[in-house]
Structure formats: C-alpha cells, structure tokens
C-alpha cells in the first residue's frame, strides 16, 4: 500500500505547551516563534502553541504564532471555564486554522479537586464545549486522567462533548499509567460504545512515567486513534511526553506493520531536535532513540566491520533519513566564510550577513584552539551564539582559575554587568565552585543550583564541553547552556546564561504562569 492510500495519522505537537511546562524549560517569545516556524515547516498538523490564560507572555506568543502560521492549525489550551476559553479564542483566532483545546480532569481524584459531582461536571462540560464551539469551528476536548476514569463515566462525558460540537476527542494518559494493550483497548471500547464516535477524531496523549509513551501511542493508533499528541525530544513534565521523532520514525521504518502516513518531513527532525534542546536547556540523552548522539554510532569492532560491508547489517534507518549528515568532519582554521555559511545551511542554520560575520569570528577562535571542527562543534557554537544573544545583562569577560592538588582553588573573574565591568577573585572547592562563587560575589542572588552537567561534544582532549546549569529561585526554574573547549569557561558562561534568564523571569513575576493551577477549573 502506498502512503497516499494509507490511513493518515495527524501529528499534534505540544512542545510549546506541555513541553514548556517542564520545570526549567521556559522559552523566550522569540524562541517560541522560531520553534513554531520549524514545526510548521516540518509538516506538523496541529501546533499547541501555549496556554493563553496562563500569562500575558503565553497569550502574546500564541497570538503571534497564530498570525504567522502557514500550514499548521494553531491550538491553545483552556480549562473548563468561559474566561479561559474566551482568552484562548482571542489568541488563536488570528490563525488560518484555529483550534480551541479545552479540558477537565474526569477521574475520581481529579473530580475531587474542584469538588464537582459527576452530574455537575457533566453540566460544566456541556456549557464549556458548547461555548468553545460557538466561537471556533475546530474544538478539541480532553478528559484529563482519562486512563484512570471509570469507563461508564468516560463514555458519558465524551458523548456530551461530541453532542456539543467537539471535533477531536483526546484521551490523555496524564500520569503515564497505562500500558500498550490497555491503551488500545480503551480507544477501541470508546469508538465502539460512544454514540457519535464515528464523527470525531480520537487522539492519544501519553506521558512517559513508565517508559511506555511511544508504545502506548502507537497501540492507540492501531485501535483507531488518528491523532498523536507528542513533543520534540519527548520534552515534558516529569518523564516527558511521547516523542514526535519516535512515533514518526516507527511508522516510517515499520510501515509494514504500522501502515499509517503522516505529513512530517522526517529530514527536518535532527535540526528541530537540536533547537529544542538548545532553547529549552534540556540536553538530549546520548542513547535517546532517533536523536541521541549515539543513535547512529557503532563502536564495537563487529558492528563497525558489518557497517563498512553493508550499512543495513546494523542500521534500520539511515542518518540522512532524519537530516543527519553522514560525513561529520567539516573544516579547520583555513576554511572560509562561504564554506562556513554552506555548512551551517546544511545543518539547518540560515544566517544573514551580519550574523555570519559574528559566527565566523567565533568559528576562527574555536579553530585556533581545536584542529578539526565537526558538525557537533558547529551546532554547539550556534547554540552558544543564540544563548549569548538573548537578554545579556551579564557577560563573562575574563576568567582565570588556579586549580590543582593544593587547595584552595581560586577564580579571577571579570563580568560585564549591564555594560559595566566588575572584577573579583573568589576561592572554592574546585575550579567550578570557585568560579560560581566569583559570579555570586559580583551578582549576589539566592537561586539554588539544581543541576550541573557536562557533556563532551566530540572525542579527544581538545573537545568542546557543553555545560548545562539549572537553577531555582522562589519556584522559578531556569536553565543555561554553553560550550567551550575549556570546561570551566563553559561552566561560567552557562551559569551566567541561566542568571540572565532568571533576571528576565524576575521582571515578569506578576504574570508568571506558575500561579495557574491546571486542576482548578473555576
Ligand atoms: O496530560 C494531560 O492530561 C494534559 C492535558 C491538559 C491534555 O496535558
Ligand atoms: Zn500532558
């Protein structure tokens, strides 16, 4: 069967809503617009662009994404109340294809929070779905925690939502509790039993708490779901959501047993994965399926020998299928600006002349320190450039550390703070601790360091290190990332990048989405 005659499964991407809800994954307005543009370009059917009532920032981002959308439907999330739904409509109405997604927790645990009886909740669903449908021709309704809701009640409320005009019924496994057979049985039961089920699209929305989100989503599709809700890199709260790249590639590579077509241009996967990792500050684990650094690496002798003779011995898909170039050795210090521009375009970065000028200076500086520059080095360099460009109140100007067997280690640091240089020398338990203490001495703050992670970008002792830092202050979580051949310099820049994000978040306290309670429907 060719893909044009196969059943179509819509891809609903919620990286900018459920993904961004992951603590510390907050993206800036410009970053959200960029990611939405990439999702639209890659063929995502529906982009859930945010939760407009959550904050003024979310509202603005959803509105602008709606205005800029080309092929994708643009969806906003709303709780089951009129104010949320009206606000959502105000944001998505600019899209050529707007969608309102409204939800309420239907399981016994979730019903207890707003303290609604089954009948009262049913009435609320009737009012809110009707209201949404009066505003927008495309309405998605979700019974949150569907997989832990009594089946009779689930059938009853879905029937109401369909009667009131919902066009998509999404079945969330909110806490990642289900397993593949149960996921399929639930969808099959709903399609068989609920009157009007044949007039709507059923969607599957899985979380990965037990590591089964991809399997559960595909099982739901086999049972009749025709929309998968997912995020790039599986970004999302706790263990994350179903990963877009996994379900798309599973349906492509195993199309013999999963005969479903999507509109996704899979060759764009790698680029968007890198961008989401960079802007969210969530590094992709090296052994992550499809987009992990090691997903196509074959290190054992037997594997390498087999690969050289016939790539299919150990590879079920080619790196180029997801947009990963097969030759990754690129250039050195003699490479020119045109070659750099071409290589970056190959990696998915289209640069204007001024931007290229800046990146070229950084590239030359890197090439002076590192003989061979690989694709991954360039990606790290680009990620570093965009992190540095965003909201730079603080900037690392100079750093020299003294470290070794004799304590205390010390750091001599100059930071530019809003254009003015400030210098300090601090000691600490190791060079990174001394450096962070120096940052704190210049820019005192109470943010708590939650995570400090170092990854080598490529092999060898001259490899760049990518450092990720996550910090928390008054419930606000921010991340920073940076790369450098000097791990301590990368650490200082990542720490400062996180602080820059924190400064921006501080000024937005009054509209911070943390104050929104998803379970509060009133
Ligand atoms: O996981 C969930 O239940 C959700 C809903 C808001 C659809 O994200
Ligand atoms: Zn979710």
Topology:
Blueprint: E1 7-8, E2 10-13, H1 15-19, H2 29-42, E3 46-50, H3 56-68, E4 73-79, H4 82-92, E5 98-105, H5 108-112, H6 118-135, E6 139-144, H7 151-163, E7 168-173, H8 180-193, E8 201-206, H9 213-222, E9 227-230, H10 244-253, E10 260-261, H11 269-280, H12 301-309, E11 329-331, H13 337-346, H14 353-369, E12 373-374, H15 375-389, E13 394-402, E14 409-417, E15 420-428, H16 431-442, E16 448-456, E17 465-473, E18 476-484, H17 487-506
This protein binds 3-methyl-2-oxobutanoic acid (KIV) and zinc ion.
Question: Would you kindly provide a written description of the structure presented here, covering whatever features stand out?
Answer:
The chain contains 17 helices and 18 strands. The chain is of the alpha/beta class and 522 residues long. The protein has four domains: 274 residues, TIM Barrel (Alpha-Beta Barrel); 31 residues, no CATH class; 62 residues; 122 residues, Double Stranded RNA Binding Domain (2-Layer Sandwich). The strands form five sheets. The protein has an eight-stranded parallel β-barrel, surrounded by six helices. Strands 13-14-15 form a three-stranded antiparallel sheet. Strands 16-17-18 form a three-stranded antiparallel sheet. The longest helix has 20 residues. The radius of gyration is 24 Å and the shape is globular. The termini are far apart. Bound molecules: 3-methyl-2-oxobutanoic acid and zinc ion (ZN). 3-methyl-2-oxobutanoic acid (KIV) binds next to strand 6. The site of zinc ion (ZN) has 5 residues, from loops.
């Amino acid at each position: 069967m060719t893909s044009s005659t196969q059943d179509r499964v819509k891809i609903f991407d919620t990286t900018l809503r459920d993904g961004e809800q992951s603590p510390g994954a907050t993206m800036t307005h410009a970053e959200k617009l960029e990611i939405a543009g990439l999702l639209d370009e890659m063929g995502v059917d529906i982009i859930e662009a945010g939760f407009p009532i959550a904050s003024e920032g979310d509202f603005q981002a959803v509105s602008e994404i709606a205005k800029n959308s080309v092929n994708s439907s643009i969806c906003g999330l709303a709780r089951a109340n009129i104010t949320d739904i009206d606000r959502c409509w105000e944001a998505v109405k600019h899209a050529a294809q707007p969608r309102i997604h409204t939800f309420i927790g239907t399981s016994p645990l979730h019903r207890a929070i707003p303290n609604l009886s089954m009948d009262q909740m049913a009435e609320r669903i009737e009012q809110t779905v009707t209201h949404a449908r009066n505003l927008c021709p495309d309405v998605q309704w979700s019974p949150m925690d569907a997989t832990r809701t009594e089946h009779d009640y689930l059938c009853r409320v879905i029937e109401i939502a369909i009667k009131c005009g919902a066009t998509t019924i999404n079945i969330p496994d909110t806490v990642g509790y289900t397993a593949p057979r149960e996921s399929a049985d639930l969808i099959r039961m709903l399609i068989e039993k609920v009157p009007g089920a044949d007039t709507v699209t059923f969607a599957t929305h899985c979380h990965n708490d037990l590591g089964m989100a991809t399997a559960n989503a595909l099982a739901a599709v086999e049972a009749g779901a025709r929309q998968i809700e997912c995020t790039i890199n599986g970004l999302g709260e706790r263990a994350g959501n179903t990963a877009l790249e996994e379900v798309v590639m599973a349906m492509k590579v195993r199309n013999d047993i999963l005969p479903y077509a999507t509109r996704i241009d899979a060759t764009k996967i790698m680029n968007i994965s890198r961008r989401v990792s960079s802007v969210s500050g969530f590094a992709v684990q090296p052994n992550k399926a499809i987009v992990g650094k090691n997903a196509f690496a074959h290190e054992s002798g037997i594997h390498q020998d087999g690969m050289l003779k016939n790539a299919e011995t150990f590879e079920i898909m080619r790196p180029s299928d997801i947009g990963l170039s097969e030759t990754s050795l690129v250039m050195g210090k003699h490479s020119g600006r045109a070659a750099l521009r071409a290589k970056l375009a190959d990696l998915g970065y289209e640069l204007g002349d001024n931007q290229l000028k800046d990146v070229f200076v950084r590239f030359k500086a890197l090439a002076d320190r590192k003989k061979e520059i690989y694709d991954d080095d360039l990606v790290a360099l680009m990620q570093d450039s965009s992190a540095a460009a965003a909201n730079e109140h603080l900037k690392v100007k100079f750093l020299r550390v003294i470290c070794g067997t004799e304590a205390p280690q010390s750091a001599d640091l100059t930071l530019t703070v809003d254009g003015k240089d400030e210098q300090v020398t601090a000691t600490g338990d190791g060079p990174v601790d001394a450096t962070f203490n120096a940052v704190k001495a210049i820019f005192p703050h109470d943010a708590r360091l939650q995570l400090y992670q170092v990854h080598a970008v490529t092999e060898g002792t001259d490899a760049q290190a990518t450092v990720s830092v996550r910090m928390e202050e008054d419930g606000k979580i921010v991340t920073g990332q940076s790369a450098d051949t000097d791990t301590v310099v990368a650490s200082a820049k990542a720490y400062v990048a996180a602080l820059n994000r924190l400064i921006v978040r501080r000024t937005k306290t009054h509209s911070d989405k943390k104050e929104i309670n998803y379970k509060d429907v009133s």
